[in-house]
Amino acid sequence: MADRYTFHSRPLADPKAIVTGSSGKGSSASHYRFTVLTDRLLRYEWSPDGGFEDRASTSVIFRRFPDVGVANFLTHDTVDSLRITTDYFQLSYDKKKFSADGLSVKVLGDRGDVWRYDGKSYGDLGGTARTLDGAYGRVDLEPGVLSRKKGYAVLDDSESMLWDKKGWIAVREKGRVDGYVFAYDGDHKAAIRDFYRISGKQPVLPRWTLGNWWSRYHEYSAGEYLELMDRFKSEGIPLNVGVVDMDWWKLTLDRHKAGWTGYSWRRDLFPDPEGFLKELHKRNLRVTLNDHPADGIASYEDLYEAVAKALDFDTSNGARIEFDCTDKKFLDAYFDVLKLTIEKQGVDFWWIDWQQGNKTKIPGVDPLWVLNHYHYLTSRRNVKTIDRPLTFSRYAGAGSHRYPIGFSGDTQITWEGLEFQPEFTATASNIGYGWWSHDIGGHWAGVRSNQLTVRWVQLGVFSPIMRLHSTKNIWNSKEPWNFEKDAFEIIRAFLILRHRLIPFLYTMNIRAVHESEPLIQPLYWNHPKDDEAYTVPTQYYFGPNLLVAPITSPDSTASLLGGVRAWLPKGRYIDVFHPHLVYDGDRYMHLHRELTHIPLLAKEGTILPLDTSPKLVNGSPRPTEITIVLVVGKDAHFELVEEPEKSTHEHTNEDEGGVDLATNVPLSAYVRTPITWNQAEGKLSIGPEWNGTGKWRQWNVTLLGHTNTDIQSLVPGFRVVRSIEGEDTTISLGNVHRWDPTGFELTLGADLQLDVVDIQARAFEVLHRCEMSYDDKDPIWDAVVESGDKVADRVTRLLNLKNVDAAVKNAVMEVWAADGRAEGTAAGVEGWVDAKREEREVEEVLREYVIV
C-alpha cells in the first residue's frame, strides 16, 4: 500500500486554457491569470508578486480534464483591457488589481446578470455548515455553488489550505486572490457536475453504512453494550454499525477531570477490548470509536511510551505529547503507532469529533481538514474489513464530500431542530455534500416527546445515514422500546424499512459517484424554472422519482394528523404508504398523515426495489428475495446495482499512482440487473444480471395502487402467484435464476393505470377519526358528498364553516382534491384555510429567489 500522502489529483491546468499577461519577472511580471476550465466555469487569480498557485487546494484538486479537453473561447487583448468570451459568459478586465469596477463576468442569455469582483463567495441557494452543535433550529449556511437570484455563483478559494506535490499540507502566499465563477444561470445539475469535476467525486460507501447505526453518549460496559445489541436482535431490528462514544477511554489520573481525549480502554468497563470487539463482529457489526484528538497523548496512556519512542520524545518528566497535525512526524506516530494498535484490536473506522476550532501552529492550516484528509487516506489499510475507505467526521468546507461520512453535530431536541434538518440536508447537496449523518432524535436539551422522536426517526430513514443518538442523560436515550407502545412499533417498523431500502440506497450510492447525482436533492434541482420549487425547503427528492415531505410539526389535536404543505411537480403521484391516495401534480397540496407515516410520493413510472428477505440480519448482505414495487402509468426503468462479486479492494491496486478512490471500480465491474416497464404493452422485463454468480433469487412484483388486472406469466417453468391485498397487487415468481442470459419477462396488461381515489371512502376515514363535535362533522360531510351545488360552491362552504379546526378542513380538502379523475373531485377548485397567509409566505420566498 502506498503511504497516506498519495491521492489522485491533477491540479495543473492545460496551458491552452490559460490567459495571462507577460511571463517576465519583476516589473514586467503579470499579476493576473484566468483559466477557462469549462465554457461555464472560470478561474480568476491575481497575484501581487507575479506568482500563481498550481498546487491542489482543499476545495479544488483537478484543473485539467483530458476527457473533455479545453473549452472553446475567444480573447480580445489590448494594452489596458482584456475580454474573454465563451458561449455562456464574457469576462471584462482592466488589467489592474481586481476591483468591482475593473473585473466583471457577464452571464450571457436573457437575464444578462453581471458579477463584479468583491472577494466573496456567493451562492444564494445555500450550501451547508460546519456543525449543528447547540442548534435550536435554523443556523446560517455557507454558500454553495448554485444560485437563483443571479445567474452565477462564486467560490472564493483564496484562503483554503493546499497540498504540495508530495501530498503534505501547505499554505498560500499572502495577498493572492484565487476564485471560481460558475456561470450556469439556473442549470443547477450542470453546475454540480462541474463542481465535482474540479473538486473530486463523492466516493462509494460500503453497503453496510446504509443501514441502521446505534450511537449513544453513555458509560457502557462491554456486557451492557453486547446485551443491548442482542436486545435489538430479539426485537427484530437490524443494525450495521455500533458506535462507541467517549467513555471507552479511561479517565485521567484526577478522576474529577474526565478529559476529552483518550486512547486507553477503561478496563473497569472493557476488561477485554479485543474480546468485546470480536463479539460485535460476530454479530455482523462494524465498530467505530469516538476520538477528540486535541489534547494529545498523556503520560497515563497505555501507548504513551510507544508514541514517545517514535517521536524521540523525552518522557522523564511525564509531559503530555502535544497534538500537532502540522508535524508530519507526529502525524505518522498518531496513525501508525497510536491508531493502528487500536485498529488491530478490532476497530474498523474512527469518529473524528473535532470541536476545537480551525487554528494550528501554521496559520492557514485547519486541523479538521488535516484530520479528515489523512484519516480517510489511511483507512485504505482497512478495506479488507470495511470494504471501502471511510471516516466519520465534521464538515470542514468545500471539498469535504471527498471524506464521507459527515457528522452534523449536537442538535437540541426541539421541533425547530427537526424542521430545519431536511432543508439543511438537501441544501448540502448544493456544495456536493451528500452523506450527512445526523443525531436522529436530537442530541440534548429539549423535551421528551414520543411524537417528536417518531417524526425524527421517519426523517432519519429517508436521510443519507440513519444513526440514532443522544447525550449522557438517564432520561434521554433512543432505544425504541423505551417509548410508548404505539411509538415503539412505528419506530421499529421504520428501522426495518431502512434495511428494506438498501438495494435502492446502494444503487443511489453508485449513481451519486458515476452520475454526480447525490441521493437527496432540493426540488429545484429537477425543476429549476418552476418558481414553486424554491418555496418548499423541507421537501426533497430521494433518488430520481421519490418525493419526501417530512412532517416536522406536532399533530393536530383535532384531526389527529400531522400536516405539511408540499408542492407537486407536473405529473401524477401515489403515496407509497397510502396507495389509495393518488395526486395530480403542478400545484400546492396540504398533505396529512397519522403518526404511523409521512408523505412519500412516487411518480408514475417508478420502480423501487426492496429487500424482502424473510429475515433481515445485521450487516445487510445481498438480499435473497427482492420485491419490485412498480408504479404504473408511465414507462419506467431502474438498474439495480450491487457490489462486484470480487472484493473492491482486490479489483484494482488503488494505491498505485494515486488512483481515484471514488471511481477506482468502474461501473462495468458492478453486478447490474436492468428492470424495465413498458407501459403501452404492459411488459415488465427483469435481467439479465450482468457480472453475477448464477445464484437463485426470489423475485416478487407489487403493483402499487393497482388492483384490477389479469396477469399472464411468460416465465417458463415457474408458478406465478397473484394476490390482492389492500390497494396493491403482488405477483410472486418463486426462485428465479439470476444469471439467465436473456432475463425474464412478465406480461401484466396493456396500459395499466393507478386506481382512482374513492373520495367518499377517504373523506369518511378522515372525518371518522377526528376528535371534534359530532354535530360539526355533518356539514363537512354534506359539503363533500352533496351533489346539488357546484363543487366550487361546496368547497367555499367547507372553508367557511365555523367552529371547525383548520387542520380538519385541510385534511378533508386533501382527499377531495387529490385525484382529478375521481367523480366529484375538487381538483382545480381546491382551497386551503389561511390561504391568504400562505400566499403571502409564498410571495415572500418568491421575492427572494424568483427573477422579476
From TrEMBL:
One of its GO terms (molecular function) is alpha-1,4-glucosidase activity. Residues 203-508 form the Glycoside hydrolase family 31 TIM barrel domain. The keyword RNA-binding does not apply. GO terms for biological process: carbohydrate metabolic process; N-glycan processing. Residues 517-608 form the Glycosyl hydrolase family 31 C-terminal domain. Its EC number is 3.2.1.20. The keyword Cell membrane does not apply. It is an enzyme of class 3 (hydrolase). It catalyses: Hydrolysis of terminal, non-reducing (1->4)-linked alpha-D-glucose residues with release of alpha-D-glucose. Transmembrane segments: none annotated. Keywords: Glycosidase, Hydrolase. Belongs to the glycosyl hydrolase 31 family. This is alpha-glucosidase. It comes from Dichotomopilus funicola. The lineage of its organism: Eukaryota, Fungi, Dikarya, Ascomycota, Pezizomycotina.
